Amino acid sequence: MAAPLPPDDDAPRARFGDGLFRLLGLRLVVWALAAQAFLPGVLLDPAKNVAYYHDEHNCVMHEEAARLTLATFHELPAWNPYFCGGIAGIANAPDASLAPDFLLRILFGTLEGRRLTVLFFVMLGMEGTYRWARKNRASALGAAMAGIAFACSGYYVELLKSGWIFMFNYQLVPWVGLAFEEGLRKRRWVVGGGLFLAWLVIGGGTYVVPYTGLALGALLLGETVRALRKADGPRSLPWWRPGATLVGMGVVAAGVSAIRLLPLALLMRGHPRPVDQRDVESPLAVLASLAVPRTHAGWGAHAGDFYVGGIVCLLAVVALLFADRRGAKFFAVAVMFAVFACGEVDKYAPYVFLHKLPVFSQLRFPVRMTVMAALFVALAGARGLTRLEDALASVGAWLVEGSTSLGARAAVVGKLLGGALGVGAAAAIALFAAKDVISDNFVHEGALWVLGPPARVEQPFRQARGNRWDAHVWTFANLGSLHCFEEQALPTSPLLRGDLPQEEYAAPGSDADVERVSWSPHRIVLRVRARGEALVRVNQNWSAAWKTDVGVVEADQRLLAVRVPAGEHLVTLRHADGAVRVGFVITAVSLLLVLRTAARGTRRRLRAWRRLHDAVTARRGSGASAPPRTPPPDAA
Amino acid sequence: MVPTVRTALAWLYGAPVRPRSPLGLWLPTAVAVVALAVGWRVTTKVARPLLASKPQPVLSGDDVNGVRFGVPEATRRQVFADFAKAEPQSRANGVSSFPGPELAWSAEDHRGAYERKTAAELMGRYGLTMSQVYLILDEGIRGRWPGPDGQPLDPHTVPLNPRRKY
User: Fold this and answer.
1) Among A233, A275, A380, A565, which is least packed, fewest CB within 10 Å?
2) pTM across the whole model
3) How far is CA A314 from each of CA A339, A422, A423, rounded to the nearest angstrom?
């Protein structure tokens, strides 16, 4: 239930221009133009080209396999037969096939869809950061600058080079943070925050969810301390509210993402990532990666890797100089992530202890946490610019008031002119800061997507020896690549081979004719004429999820096989993953509950709109003047 | 008129404005809708180059008059022979970089990296696409075409066993 409390924190300050940015359409124009300046290579390079780096090929392969499974075979991609001879699909860490953004790959094709996803996430990141900054009383200009700085920061260029489009869901993190802070007082945001968290879980990637968890932990700590100290006076929250908000978000997220969370958790438990490396990064390098542009690479190692703008970093410091509470909050979280990003720089470094925790123990490269530091620096920068804008407006107003003879109107004129001065200066700084980030980070045309499109070949599915370094080629040709790479030692069979005349055959010692009747990633129908009990091999890895309606499924040196009795049979092999099925049911029920909540909220807002409309119309009909916004002093 | 100007100014300053007439209710709504339409139009214009891309190439897997994947058989045989010729050295390089049975997967992975280099070289040499050269390699392995030593290439790969350090 929403708390019966007045709006939180210090009163919002009216600033010239803040109203204009309330228009979502105007913000869309700004985000689209900023994205266009940041992503010329993404938008203008031939859409079906692929980048040279092999991880891009791996991602394209996974996504095309999932797209084929969903769009062509109308099956949930629980199993990917196109790689390693068959491995987990939805349960695999980089899988993003059930995320809302995957719809773009289904609608427009994997290759174009990936580029559109980049554009979509960049604009979404701008909007999310903008909203979170505005929630923290940043001016529209400060918030817009923060949105552009974070969404166009250097790490996204690194992600593009590597082809890790699924990791663009870092752009959802500001939405999660916003939802947490809004959810402290508004229940619908708890549901919203849960949905964004679920999107992170479903959207793929191993790093973003634990990092977001860390950020939420830091925010939770701050809000709980404020509540315990009753720092907001009568508006203070009960001490348990921040924790309850986070638990609520977690429950919604776990429910909605169960279809992926359950199989993923089981796979990670059964096949943990082998991590045995010491990651060290110098604090100066982390700082340089955030604050020094690539064009000055000589100023520090890794300069520009996470570049969020030198001006934005300076503005974050300005927020501290103004003793800005919200700026300091964001700055502190940024410092926390920067310290973690240094990894095992010392035997007592915080990361050493973090790395011993579940989930975090399976992660490498803590330097990636710098992307989170970039977000919080951008938010602190928004507060810094806001403070400057307000200070300039006040000084301008004071100067006008003191130097004119307008009498009573001096205050109004002073406020208008001072406001214009503040906005003008803030706009100039925001524009300069945004240009600085974009001009250093932008994705050049013709630089990344240098390989021509892979060809489609219409032929029956079969396994090839393949090559994981160019994994994308095989899927488009309807071939599986046995040569593969995954972060975990997923079970694969030594009996897999890429030279079979047919993929399903009688094992040596078995006397049977085998013919494929139909094939899809999760359903293989075979006609078997066995002249005695026979073992039929399928050129894919065994998994406990494979079931048969005739005989028994067996693992023949981890190869999928089915033992059938003598006679002629129509054998149907089905991949039915129990964890995916249970997860599907939980997700479906959770989504129904969320939809019901959303429908109620929409009905409530429509009723409120109708009431307002009726009141305005009735007032016009009666000729009465508008009621005062606050009751007169004698109303009591 | 003055209250209207004041209301508009208040709106511009981001202050909450309560509508006092149907016009005051519908005008901001109309402005928001128009702005949204403009925003959508600009966004779709930005994305348009991606939606107007050329269709993906399609290759025929059927052998028609000796031509398959758009390449005559003689060229395909030559491309495969070049792959096969490079493979023993690729294997040796893989094993020397990652010796021992516990690193067998890494050695095989390394061989694949060398094969990728060979593929890039053959693309340039024969003017073929990446898909074409790999499809030819697959055809040769599947057809058990003989390599320089008269033997077909190994159709197997080593079971997945990633390293703990990268």
Assistant:
1) A233
2) 0.92
3) 19, 18, 19
